[in-house]
Design brief:
It is a single chain. It is built from 10 helices and 2 strands; from the N terminus they run H-H-H-H-E-E-H-H-H-H-H-H. By secondary structure, the protein is mainly α. The chain folds into 2 domains: 40 residues, no CATH class; 141 residues. A two-stranded antiparallel sheet has the order 1-2.
Length: 183
């Protein structure tokens, strides 16, 4: 029974944490403090690596399975690739939004940067067959994520920091986005 915590499923562990937090007092405060500590540290490189690995794991066969004719019309392989990429990125986009809901703007920006960097690295470095079909999807997913972040974050210093990040770490997309906004 000493190793019971490591034997819990993810759902069981979540239930235990929720029960402890709900008790209030010192135990509830300790659980909340640990959650804040856990969420408070965002490693941009680690986030980018996770996103890159997730996108690299998409099998080209999944794209072929979605592409083609159906009773709803025709789905091109490129459209199927974009759908698969959006689905794979959904948990990361959701986490960016959760940081905002928690009132953690620095973490929100850092996590957003990590996700964008991971997509950029996939777009530029991946050797997967899937990437060839998802050629424009990465930039479009990053643009959607960035637009959502900008709508929630109007602070000039934060916007400038994000713009500088894009110029330094994602230069091809930064230029593309600036050109797009001018037109």
């Amino acid at each position: 029974m000493t190793d019971i915590i490591s034997k819990l499923t993810a759902q069981q562990a979540l239930t235990v944490v929720q029960r402890l937090a709900g008790k209030g007092g010192e135990i509830g405060a300790a659980v909340r403090a640990e959650a804040i500590d856990l969420l408070g540290v965002v490693d941009l490189g680690e986030t980018a690596d996770e996103v890159l690995a997730a996108l690299d794991s998409i099998a080209i066969e999944d794209c072929w399975d979605r592409a083609g004719g159906s009773r709803d019309g025709y789905t091109s392989p490129e459209e199927a690739a974009a759908e698969l990429m959006e689905e794979e990125l959904e948990p990361y986009v959701d986490q960016v939004e959760r940081y905002h809901e928690l009132g953690m703007p620095q973490q929100e920006a850092a996590y957003c940067m990590g996700v964008i960097l991971g997509i950029y690295q996939f777009d530029r470095e991946s050797k997967s067959e899937f990437r060839e079909l998802a050629e424009d999807a990465g930039a479009e997913c990053a643009e959607t994520l960035l637009d959502g972040w900008r709508k929630r974050n109007q602070d000039k210093a934060s916007v400038n920091a994000m713009r500088e990040f894009m110029r330094e770490r994602c230069p091809k997309w930064a230029k593309w986005l600036e050109d797009k906004r001018r037109s």
